[in-house]
Amino acid sequence: MSNENKMGVMPINKLLISMSLPMIVSMLVQAMYNIVDSIFVARISENALTAVSLAFPLQNLMIAFAGGTAVGVNALLSRSLGEKNQEHVNQTAIHSIVIYVVTALIFAILGFSLSHLFFNVQTSNQEIVQAGTTYAIIVVGFSFGLFGQFLFERLLQATGRTLFTMVTQGLGAIINIILDPIFIFGYFGLPKMGVAGAALATVSGQIIAFFLAMLFNFKCNHDISFDWKNFKFDLTIIKQIYSVGVPSIIMQSIGSVMTFGMNSILIRFSTTATAVFGVYFKLQSFVFMPVFGLNNGMIPIIAYNLGAKKSKRMFDTINLAMIYATGMMIIGIIIFECIPKTLLGFFNASPDMISIGIPALRIIAIHFIFAGYCIVCGAVFQAVGKGTYSLLTSLIRQLFVLLPCAYILSLFGNINLIWLCFPIAEISSAITSTILFSKIKKLISSVESS
Question: What ranges do the domains of the chain cover?
Fold first, then answer.
């Protein structure tokens, strides 16, 4: 690597935009296919929509392991690039492939063996249980596409090639959107597969994106050499990846626990309430996904400049990311507060769903203004190797505050009160993030400028 990587020399605003914009676009496309998926499923029945909503914790758990591991790989690989340690870059990439293969095999086994039990625990409605089990077996059992896509897209991101990830994520999402109605309703001579068709469309898009991302890495990613001949298993590299990755995995897995807990609380009121919660998660992805795209562009920049000992570039990146994230969240608040009925209408909402959903969306959206700040803080913690900080803020928000608060509010018998747990939990997360971020500022300030 005779030339300096752009993450160490390009003007920060231009760099952050160039790194993040492709990811933001691809994340928006990703959010769109998540929503379209549920829109088509809602046309089957409200029970089908509820089944897919109940399956969300399983999907989120897979994303937690894939994304959390990717955070560790990203941070280690980008830091090694900044240190000009090419051998460590190559070994990190190859070890990450081994990790992902093993993880995908474990989830495949769990998907085929435990999906039916997972839905039986949540509801006695056999229509929901049957539809949910079918959906989960396909999505979890054939999740190697998801894990492969995560792996090779994050390797591209870590080396600054985010444009390629926009192509892979966009193509995967478009394929999913195209195949959804074909598989669900049985067009072009294919059998009508219902919920199973939605799952099959999802994994098809993931598998194609996986192979394309792998091709881009092997052909176009010149910062990494996938040299298996010189591969030597090194437990130290695994530990370095998971020192950042494990807290992130736990942090994102907490989201599955939270969703499972909220579903358990809401289903006591009605299955419609659970469907509303599932719809909210689909809709809010349009607000949160762009911020996550911003984070994915920001983390390699911070990690690289930490390795290169350029503290000013780190601070400039963080400040800009805070501004952009807050702006995105303000737009989200305006949309949720102004047109909640229109948003629910996309999902073939019944009068009961609309009556529950309108106040739900408006109340929950209050927390967006705090969430942008907290998300960026969490990404900074991960980028500098303080993944435990992100874990702590997530634990406080989702387990120690949100779920207990939701349960207590549910005892009053008014479902509208339950939604208040989101802004209450986000305020607690913002306070915690601010305290921990003050320590990170000192850490960054101690880095020698060059």
Answer: 10-445
